[in-house]
């Protein structure tokens, strides 16, 4: 065979480079060529059919360090949350890129957090002793703000100190107390007494102190009051009250009965209305009564001048069937029922 007829191989040109195997962080790309009329690696086509090169040598975008945690959303307790974040940073361009460029991982982290027990009011302590032994005074009680200070959330509503009025009864009178002689029938005729109701034999005028009978309202009486008209305004500083031992003198009345709680009212000529005897705090006084039918108890108040006096019965023993005897009190030296103090020798019952 003549040499002119021998075919000598030769390389074709290289193909274009392939796409880089990675978008960043030292990837690999390749290209190829073919040997025409020959075999690669022998005469005419020395070398390789494939060539490799490096690409995208720049580093990949990476997460930055975590930023500090945010402040817990709750100021106390364990129900709050806090968060922290980080950026996806591309060194090759020196800037922050989208979070997806950093592949795995999250740009934000959230976790629960707590900042200790919440402030809360403690229970109220006991009331302290009254600031005075009589007259209007104050009693105090306190509470603490646990796990905080007053004004913190949880201790921002309400106060740590509470006060109430105490010992609202009047101080003992400095005068010598004497009876006003309501029990004297000559000075206070039967017609000056009135009541919301009365049992036969226990009419209102029988409510005289130390008498053999008493005033007993009917059992269906829901108002239960008795009043006496002194015919002229008198200074009154208190009242004596007694219960009643029946001894079978009145058939329908209980054997033993007494008033255990009551109020006292007086006629105010300036308003033409009845007003209650009040304590130094301006509240209507509710007097404790008796605890037996044979005792006599006195109740006092600052002197009030009035003509008509009313006793409002609130609680009795037996229930709905309490009987009452009473006497109004005044300071010795005050005119007694329009007469001098020595004029107390009238007939009594």
UniProtKB/TrEMBL annotation:
Xref: InterPro entries: Compl_asym_regulator (IPR052065), FA58C (IPR000421), Galactose-bd-like_sf (IPR008979), TSP1_rpt (IPR000884), TSP1_rpt_sf (IPR036383)
Stored SUPFAM superfamilies: Galactose-binding domain-like, TSP-1 type 1 repeat
Gene3D superfamilies to which the protein is assigned, alphabetical: Galactose-binding domain-like, Thrombospondin type-1 (TSP1) repeat
Locations listed in the record: Secreted
Ranges of residues in domain F5/8 type C: 175-331
Main location, first listed in the record: secreted
Keywords linked to the UniProt accession: Disulfide bond, Repeat, Secreted, Signal
Keyword Signal applies: yes
Domain of life of the source: Eukaryota
UniProt KW Disulfide bond keyword: yes
Protein name, entry field: F5/8 type C domain-containing protein
């Amino acid at each position: 065979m003549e040499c002119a007829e021998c075919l000598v191989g030769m390389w074709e040109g290289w193909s274009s480079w392939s796409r880089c195997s990675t978008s960043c962080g030292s990837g690999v790309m390749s290209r190829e060529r073919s040997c025409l009329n020959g075999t690669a690696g022998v005469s005419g086509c020395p070398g390789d059919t494939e060539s490799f090169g490096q690409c995208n040598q720049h580093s990949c975008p990476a997460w930055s360090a975590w930023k500090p945690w945010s402040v817990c959303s709750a100021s106390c307790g364990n129900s709050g949350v806090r968060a922290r974040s980080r950026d996806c940073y591309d060194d090759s361009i020196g800037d922050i890129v989208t979070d997806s460029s950093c592949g795995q991982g999250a740009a934000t982290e959230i976790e629960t957090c707590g900042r200790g027990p919440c402030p809360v009011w403690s229970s109220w302590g006991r009331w302290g002793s009254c600031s005075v032994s009589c007259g209007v005074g104050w009693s105090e009680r306190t509470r603490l703000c646990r796990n905080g200070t007053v004004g913190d959330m949880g201790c921002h509503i309400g106060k740590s100190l509470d006060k109430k009025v105490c010992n609202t009864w009047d101080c003992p009178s400095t005068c010598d107390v004497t009876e006003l002689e309501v029990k004297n029938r000559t000075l206070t005729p039967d017609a000056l007494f009135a009541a919301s109701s009365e049992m036969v034999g226990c009419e209102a005028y029988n409510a005289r102190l130390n008498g053999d009978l008493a005033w007993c309202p009917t059992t269906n009486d829901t108002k239960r009051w008795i009043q006496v008209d002194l015919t002229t305004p008198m200074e009154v500083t208190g009242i004596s009250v007694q219960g009643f031992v029946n001894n079978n003198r009145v058939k329908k009345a209980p054997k033993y009965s007494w008033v255990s709680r009551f109020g006292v009212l007086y006629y105010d000529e300036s308003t033409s209305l009845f007003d209650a005897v009040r304590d130094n705090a301006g509240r209507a006084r509710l007097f404790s009564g008796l605890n037996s039918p044979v005792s006599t108890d006195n109740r006092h108040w600052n002197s009030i001048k009035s003509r008509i006096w009313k006793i409002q019965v609130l609680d009795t023993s037996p229930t709905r069937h309490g009987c009452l005897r009473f006497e109004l009190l005044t300071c010795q030296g005050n005119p007694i029922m329009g007469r001098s103090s020595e004029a107390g020798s009238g007939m009594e019952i």
